[in-house]
Design the sequence.
């Protein structure tokens, strides 16, 4: 008899609420702090509201992980509902304490087993794992079977980001003052990616057009090796740019399923408005 398994994630997966309801995915939000005001992502502050506030903010907002009590309360509720296991899936533990917070909360709750999966990414690629886990749980898989599947998926998951404005990376401590000046002068568009769970530079490319072409080339390297892939274009308040990139990808790879997602407040704080990303995943069979 399979165990009743709940799937939990955080707001940085940016999974629409209707899909979470349909697949019975629980979500705990991270926080964005403007000055003295703290907002829970999605619950207190929509993505559109966030980018509007960013235009007039005196200084960059800060972000913080959820309070441990939110996880404890949720896990207790799930135990009361008869769930025996929780698979809790979060953004990279190298960029946020959310994953560790969830595991610590799990140790404080009796009557339910909580296991975690560190996606080592965020945003749409994080959502890939959450959606697959939810479908598997709804099909009767237990926590171990789900974790095995997610570990297998990690072998083919890729995610790259192109920032529009270097100032956010500089203010976030990821770029020195000299790099900022030179980068702006040369119109450099750094392509970033996740390496061992950290956001690090992948390549520095002159001009946005070349950077986006490079993202498509990277996708082609994997797609050309065979298998079925799905891809997601991710944008920071830049839907038109995301739609154009998605169109180019669909034209070049008709067999790849392409959709569009977004960088919400927490991740948008660090990347800045205008950023674009591309993630992809080989279809799990």
Sequence:
């Amino acid at each position: 008899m399979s165990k009743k398994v709940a799937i939990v994630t955080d707001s940085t997966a940016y999974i629409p609420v209707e899909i979470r309801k349909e697949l019975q995915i629980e979500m705990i939000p991270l926080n964005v702090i403007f000055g003295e005001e703290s907002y829970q992502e999605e619950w207190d502050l929509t993505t559109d509201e966030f980018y509007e506030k960013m235009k007039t903010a005196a200084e960059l907002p800060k972000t913080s992980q959820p309070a441990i009590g939110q996880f404890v309360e949720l896990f207790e509720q799930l135990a009361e509902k008869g769930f025996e296991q929780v698979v809790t899936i979060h953004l990279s533990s190298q960029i946020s304490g959310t994953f560790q917070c969830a595991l610590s909360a799990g140790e404080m709750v009796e009557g339910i087993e909580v296991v975690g999966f560190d996606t080592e990414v965020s945003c749409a690629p994080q959502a890939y794992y959450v959606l697959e886990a939810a479908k598997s749980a709804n099909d009767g898989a237990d926590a171990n079977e789900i974790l095995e599947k997610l570990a297998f998926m990690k072998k083919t998951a890729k995610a790259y980001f192109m920032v529009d404005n270097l100032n956010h990376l500089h203010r976030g401590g990821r770029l020195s003052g000299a790099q900022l000046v030179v980068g702006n002068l040369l119109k450099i568009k750094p392509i970033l990616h996740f390496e061992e769970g950290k956001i690090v530079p992948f390549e520095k490319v002159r001009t946005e057009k070349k950077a986006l072409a490079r993202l498509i080339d990277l996708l082609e390297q994997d797609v050309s090796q065979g298998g079925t892939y799905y891809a997601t274009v991710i944008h920071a308040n830049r839907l038109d740019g995301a739609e154009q990139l998605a169109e180019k990808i669909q034209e070049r790879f008709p067999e790849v399923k392409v959709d569009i997602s977004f960088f919400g407040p927490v991740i948008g704080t660090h990347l800045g408005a205008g950023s674009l990303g591309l993630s992809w995943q080989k279809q799990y069979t």
The first helix runs from residue 17 to 23.
